[in-house]
Amino acid sequence: MHYPESVSRDAWRAERQALLQQEKEATRLLDAVAARRRRLPMTPVRTDYVFGSMQGSLGFLELFDGADQLIVYHNMLAPGSDFICPGCSRYSDHLGNLAHLRARRSRFVMVSRAPVARIEQVKARMGWRFPWVSCEGTSFHEDFVATEGESFGLSVFMRRGDAVYQSYFTSGRGVELPSNSFGLLDITPWGRQESWEDSPAGTPQEPAHGWVRLHDEYPRRD
User: Fold this and answer.
1) Alpha helix (H) ranges present in the chain?
2) How do beta strands 132-134 and 106-112 pair?
3) pTM for the whole thing?
């Protein structure tokens, strides 16, 4: 069994400060990547997909529920299969209260090809409460995931009036960092919408953390 070397407090502080400099460099690099991501062009979505849910059929625009940005996790749960992906489940277990996204004009929805009944069965077993809809019978999965050579991933869509655009997709280890509200916002065109961010002109922004509330204290954004 390996354990780190035991050193004096002063030696530990010196090593910690050296590591801290590298950590800050990594943070600045991630900030630069996020700034470039916020400047990615977007591409129009031409198909009017219809999704299944416990509330009935929903059009693509209805998934936004009045928000400007939509983050979609493409879950591998497939029709006619009992397999529940451990990786997708680990990601799902880390999803917190989505009110923090809503406060930033964004919404999160999980989508899979399995029918609604199977989705609800898995949600009940795992104790999940986030929105999860079915794209069964549509080409949604093939159009946004399979064409990238992947079986799961994260997509970001933006609504401009009644027009929908895709701005981002990632898969593999790319889904690791966006597993909380800040990480999810960082992959959207508007980011965290805080004044310290290097964002394009016209991006909505407020002072850092000034918008953060307890999740039941946010005003409703329609």
Assistant:
1) 9-37, 60-64, 86-93, 99-102, 116-126, 140-144, 181-185
2) parallel
3) 0.89
Count of structural domains, the chain: 1
Phi, psi of 148 (to 5 degrees): -90, 5
- Which residues pair with residue 156 across a beta bridge? 71, 168
31 phi, psi to nearest 5 deg: -65, -40
The answer to whether 159 and 189 are in contact (CB under 8 A) is no
CA distance 221 to 161: 16
List the CATH number of the domain containing 149: 3.40.30.10
Q: What is the pLDDT of residues 3-27, one digit of tens each?
A: 889 999 999 999 999 999 999 999 9
Q: What is the pLDDT of residues 70-106, one digit of tens each?
A: 999 999 999 999 999 999 999 999 998 999 999 999 9
Which uninterrupted H or E stretch holds 74? strand 69-74
